[in-house]
Amino acid sequence: MKNPKSISVRQKFIASAKNSKILTRKCKDCSTIMLATILYCEKCHGKNFNIIEYPGSGYVTTFTIHTVPPEGFEDVDSYAWVVFTLDDILVRASGFLPNIKKPSDLPIGSKVNVQGFDEKHGLVLKKL
Ligand SMILES: [Zn+2]
User: Fold this and answer.
1) What are phi and psi of 94, to 5 degrees?
2) Domains detected in the chain
3) Beta carbons within 8 Å of 104's beta carbon, 6+ residues apart
4) Coil, strand, or helix at residue 14?
5) Residue 56 alpha carbon to ligand 1 centre in Å
6) At 28, is the secondary structure helix, strand, or coil?
7) What is the 45 CA–ligand 1 centroid distance (Å)?
8) Predicted pLDDT of residue 69
């Protein structure tokens, strides 16, 4: 049995991503902010949170380039799996950025924005 509460948080996270937003949780005990998909506080293991939505814009922290696209993205030649840092809260997230062929296509620090969510692969990004 899946926990219905965790499903609804995931659904909200996806709905936010489709609006170019990132849903986060702020721990009521230690004020740590993390992605809403994380169930327990990363720092103090608390589970009392305020849910806060932030703009899904950030900058590239690191990435790897893949030349074989994953299932569901067969029309994409190559892509980058990107770790990015959100501008407003300095929280890291990762996502899928299509049509990146070589490292010079995506200098570290490039601006990216959340564009949507893929059920299999997670956040879908766009380079700004
Ligand atoms: Zn905490």
Assistant:
1) -130, 155
2) 4-55 (no CATH), 57-127 (2.40.50)
3) none
4) helix
5) 23
6) coil
7) 6
8) 86
